Amino acid sequence: MASAASVTSLAEEVNCPICQGTLREPVTIDCGHNFCRSCLTRYCEIPGPHLEESPTCPLCKEPFRPGSFRPNWQLANVVENIGRLQLVSMLGSEEDDICQEHGEKIYFFCEDDEMQLCVLCREAGEHRAHTLRFLEDAAAPYREQIQKCLQCLRKEREEIQEIQSREKKRIQVLLTQVSTKRQQVISEFAHLSRFLKEQQSILLAQLESLDGDILKQQDEFDFLVAGEICRFSALIEELEKKNERPAGELLTDIRSTLIRCETRKCRKPEAVSPELGQKIRDFPQQALPLQREMKMFLEKLRFELDYEPVYISLDPQTSHPKLLLSEDHRRAQFSYKWQNSPDSPQRFDRATCVLAQDGFTGGKHTWVVSVDLAHGGSCTIGVMSEDMSRKGELRLRPEEGVWALRLAWGFVSALGSFPMRLALREQPQQVRVSLDYEVGWVTFANAVTCEPIYTFTASFTRRVFPFFGLWGRRSSFSLSY
């Protein structure tokens, strides 16, 4: 059956160009265009200059003879069929309920053959042994299934939309961070460029000064050497002349002459004084400020441009009784001896853990944990959601609100849905933990070698706290930033 859209399209093709309605008694004129007979007759009767000559076609303006109308019976049949199709289209819902074979209204549904039946179909032998139900009764369970499917699909669509919204926000946060980093890098390199130019000027000025000192001492050396050469030349010339004289003249004052030669003091000046030599040797020390500045610059590029170092102290109200906290709450040590700590909802009662005093609801933060497991044991490091229960055994995994690493003697594991042992080049003694709340990253790295260890991706909605767990004789950890 033709669709309503196709029927409408066909109907537009058989409209009269004069009245814009469906053609009635269509006739064709000499140029081949079709019009309603009555519309074309009235057109020819309208007074005007065209009556003096042959009338022209309303569409193409070709002249035609008024008596040359030719009935177009084929087009009339097409118009009639299109009208019938329009009627069927309007009454289609009613015809859909009519059995195509018997012309009777459909009342039943055969569940075995999944067919819609009329009364005559039901009485047919092939359906007598089948399960037959009224249409509405048969449709009811399917409607329920459809509703369940719709609920599931809508729920999944909402979840996807939530993911889409969350990821769009994450992308915007990342774009903002990249833009901020770009400006920071430009600013830091501009500062470094100014500093390098200043240091270059200072070092070149010092080298210029050393050049001047060397040239000055060279002049002094040349003057002294020239004097000594002159003195020795005079003595040599005197002795040469003495040696050429006869014996009598040679012996005259010979002893005085020899004493003067033997008691001469030869001054051996140095071209560069020890003090100037020491200045030249110490010149590399002048580059120490440059070295310190470059180190600071690299540190900024590595961390300070990315995360803000934070001061963390441990919360004694959350600490398990087997953990000994230092007075400044920056260090914890495991002890088999229980401390006298009153129980409270905030305190861990079975897992030997402790939280930081302050949590985060946004921003980018980093801190360093130094771990000492020389006597065995293990240490857990990460972040924990504030709404996670601290009583009983803890399930340390992201689904429960914990994103953490476990460091044990000889291996490191990421505590995901299933713990995963990580392959690292060396066992980290200091671990840098970095939290990006908006993006949802918890990143761990070796604080000494800067080797990446592991990164969790999460979607934070509650406050999160730096989280620490400790077990094993004399195992300990301390905090820095």
UniProtKB/TrEMBL annotation:
Coiled coil: 143-170
Domain annotation B30.2/SPRY: ranges: 292-481
Location of the protein in the cell: Cytoplasm
Domain RING-type intervals: 16-61
Keywords carried by this UniProt record: Coiled coil, Cytoplasm, Metal-binding, Zinc, Zinc-finger
Main location: cytoplasm
GO terms, molecular function: zinc ion binding
SUPFAM superfamilies: B-box zinc-binding domain (SSF57845), Concanavalin A-like lectins/glucanases (SSF49899), RING/U-box (SSF57850)
Record-annotated B box-type domain positions: 94-135
Keyword Cell inner membrane: no
Taxonomy, superkingdom: Eukaryota
UniProt-listed CDD domains: RING-HC_TRIM10_C-IV, SPRY_PRY_TRIM10
Cellular component, GO annotation: cytoplasm
One of the GO BP terms on file: host-mediated suppression of symbiont invasion
A Pfam family reported for this protein in Swiss-Prot or TrEMBL: PRY
Annotated InterPro entries: B30.2/SPRY (IPR001870), B30.2/SPRY_sf (IPR043136), Butyrophylin_SPRY (IPR003879), ConA-like_dom_sf (IPR013320), PRY (IPR006574), SPRY_dom (IPR003877), TRIM/RBCC (IPR050143), TRIM10_RING-HC (IPR042784)
Family assignment from sequence similarity: Belongs to the TRIM/RBCC family.
Record text on subunit structure and interactions: Interacts with IFNAR1; this interaction prevents association of IFNAR1 with TYK2.
Name under which the protein is recorded: Tripartite motif-containing protein 10
Organism (species): Otolemur garnettii
Highest classification ranks of the organism: Eukaryota, Metazoa, Chordata, Craniata, Vertebrata
